[in-house]
């Protein structure tokens, strides 16, 4: 019985240590610079908190005057920044935030509530553009226009579709 207990403890310690090692290795690989020809592993994570417009201070009362433990209308943005100058928005979180976390960040990390860095704003706008418009706009040549080329096929395409609809109804 004593030998089985000892083997179980050794196995648990081994599994815990290997999990920690593999997790740290994964984080070193996952948190590397994705800019071409850089590949540094020392990227820095920057967190920004954007409260609702009517939330001026962190308090136990909502703007309506009701008591609360969580701030529900809040957006948390997580950026990665490399020493080479590459910045990317990697996470947009809209989950509620506890008052304790908000108070701690307001007291000791005031820079999380200040979203004024131009590189971060530009990275956030690029990510929003990519999320809502897709990847189509990034591969376009700057000299191209949104106007399609003029051809007889494009002129009569809608006309033939309307005629086919009329014929189908008959």
Attribute tags:
extended; alpha+beta; 170 residues; 5 strands
Give a structural overview.
There is one protein chain. The chain is of the alpha+beta class and 170 residues long. It has a domain of 107 residues. 43% of the residues lie in helices and 16% in strands. The protein has 4 helices and 5 strands. The strands form 2 sheets. A 3-stranded antiparallel sheet has the order 1-3-4. It has a two-stranded antiparallel sheet with strand order 2-5. The radius of gyration is 27 Å and the shape is extended.
For the largest beta sheet, what order do the strands appear in spatially?
1-3-4
Low-pLDDT runs: none
Which percent band covers the strand fraction? 15-25%
How would you classify the helix and strand content by structural class? alpha+beta
* Overall pLDDT score: 81
Number of β-strand runs: 5
Shape: extended
- Give the number of helices: 4
**Span between N and C termini?**
88 Å
For the sheet with most strands, the description reads: 3 strands, antiparallel
Instruction: Please bin the fraction of helical residues.
Output: 40-55%
How big is the Rg? 27 Å
* SSE run: HEEEEEHHH
Blueprint (SSEs and pairs):
Blueprint: H1 2-30, E1 44-51, E2 70-71, E3 74-81, E4 87-93, E5 97-98, H2 99-108, H3 118-133, H4 152-169
Antiparallel strand pairs: 1-3, 2-5, 3-4
Give a short synopsis of this structure:
The chain has 170 residues and is α+β, with helices and mostly antiparallel strands.
């Amino acid at each position: 019985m004593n030998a089985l207990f000892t083997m179980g403890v050794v196995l648990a310690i081994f599994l815990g240590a290997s999990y920690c090692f593999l997790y740290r290795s994964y984080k070193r690989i996952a948190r590397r610079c994705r800019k071409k020809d850089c590949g540094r592993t020392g990227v820095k994570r920057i967190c920004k908190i954007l409260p609702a417009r009517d939330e001026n201070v962190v308090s136990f009362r909502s703007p309506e005057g009701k008591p609360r433990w969580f701030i529900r209308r809040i957006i948390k943005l997580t950026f990665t920044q490399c020493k080479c100058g590459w910045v990317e928005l990697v996470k947009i979180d809209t989950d509620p935030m506890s008052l304790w976390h908000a108070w701690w960040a307001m007291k000791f990390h005031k820079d999380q509530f200040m979203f004024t860095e131009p590189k971060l704003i530009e990275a956030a706008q690029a990510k929003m553009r990519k999320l809502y418009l897709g990847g189509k706009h990034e591969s376009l040549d700057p000299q191209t226009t949104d106007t399609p080329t003029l051809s007889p096929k494009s002129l009569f395409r809608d006309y033939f579709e309307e005629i086919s609809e009329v014929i189908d109804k008959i």
